[in-house]
Write a structure and sequence with these properties.
By secondary structure, the chain is of the alpha/beta class. It is built from eight helices and 13 strands. The protein binds zinc ion.
Length: 302
């Protein structure tokens, strides 16, 4: 298969009607053909989780479904511009609503695949609570969400062969959540990393496990990849993995030093907030720094 480099912008959605009206509005969302028949829809600011879809000769594989059915339908429009083939598989990289609350639009694929902990997190009262949490963000269209958990789950890994594509779904350990998977595309030397990688922004770490997250990134870094497709921010090369890993290592060692000096959580936030803001001044979502410190502090203190 001919490998093609990043950034062939195929089309641009402009949500002009939303501009300047809603705080989370997207200036635009691009559909980027990362490789032939492998497309990633990349957002700008706000609820900016990416969706990747792969058009095989047998049908389409969708990885992550966005935050509302309305957003998921926009993905479907992008798919239908390119093919009438059926949706074969839908994959959730983890349970967070900005990756799963569009699942109902892809129910026709029959299979929604994820790590087993994703099903647990979206079933019953846990799923309802997560939806209520997302409703506090006042995102239009949340009332249309019917929480739709994955119906095919695995524990460590599974493989999909569809048309000319071979996908390896791997849950190495916990990281961003307790049910992350990343998707390897060995023939393309590519990885779809889920939220284990945020490119150019501070990650949400509220459900994270810092040590295991570093372990997962270490594994990815040592694979033979040239292309990394994160679920927040643009795709790129291996430096994206390295930047994310170094951030977590840095965070961990800074927080550990403070704890060794007997600092309280509030004191650690006061001391490290400015340091991290300056060191990563080009990164977006700086409001997450305190939460990142807190999660790391709790993990080290346990
Ligand atoms: Zn997430």
């Amino acid at each position: 298969m001919v490998r093609k480099k990043l950034q062939i912008v195929v089309s641009v959605w402009v949500f002009a009607g939303l501009l300047n009206i809603l705080p989370w509005a997207q200036a635009d969302a691009k559909t980027v053909e990362v490789f032939p028949n492998v497309f990633t829809i990349v957002h700008g600011e706000g609820i900016d989780s990416n969706t990747t879809f792969i058009i095989t000769t047998e049908g389409v594989i969708v990885i992550d479904t966005r935050v509302t059915p309305a957003e998921a339908k926009k993905v479907m429009v992008e798919i239908r511009k390119r093919t009438e083939l059926p949706i074969l598989y839908t994959i959730n990289t983890h349970y967070h609503g900005d990756h799963t609350f569009g699942n109902q639009v892809f129910r026709g694929s029959k299979t929604i695949i994820a790590h087993k902990n994703v099903r647990r997190a979206l079933m019953g009262s846990a799923g309802k609570e997560h939806l209520e949490f997302f409703k506090t963000f006042k995102i239009p269209g949340m009332d249309e969400v019917t929480v739709t958990p994955p119906n095919m789950v695995f524990e460590k890994s599974m493989e999909i062969y569809a048309g000319e594509y071979h996908l390896q779904l791997i849950h190495l350990c916990r990281g961003h959540t307790d049910g992350d998977l990343f998707v390897l595309l060995p023939a393309l030397k590519a990885v779809i990393a889920g939220d284990l990688i945020f490119n150019g922004q501070f990650s949400y770490m509220g459900n994270g496990y810092v040590d295991e997250w570093i372990e997962a990134l270490d594994y990815m870094e040592n694979q033979d990849f040239e292309m990394v497709i994160p679920c927040h921010g643009d795709a790129g090369g291996k430096p994206i993995i390295i930047a994310m890993k170094h951030y977590l290592l840095n965070l961990k060692s800074l927080v550990r030093k403070q704890i060794e000096n007997g600092a309280s959580l509030e004191k650690v936030k006061e001391a490290l907030g400015p340091v991290l803001r300056e060191k990563y001044e080009s990164w977006g979502k700086q409001k997450r720094i305190d939460g990142n410190i807190e999660r790391t502090y709790m993990e080290i203190s346990l």
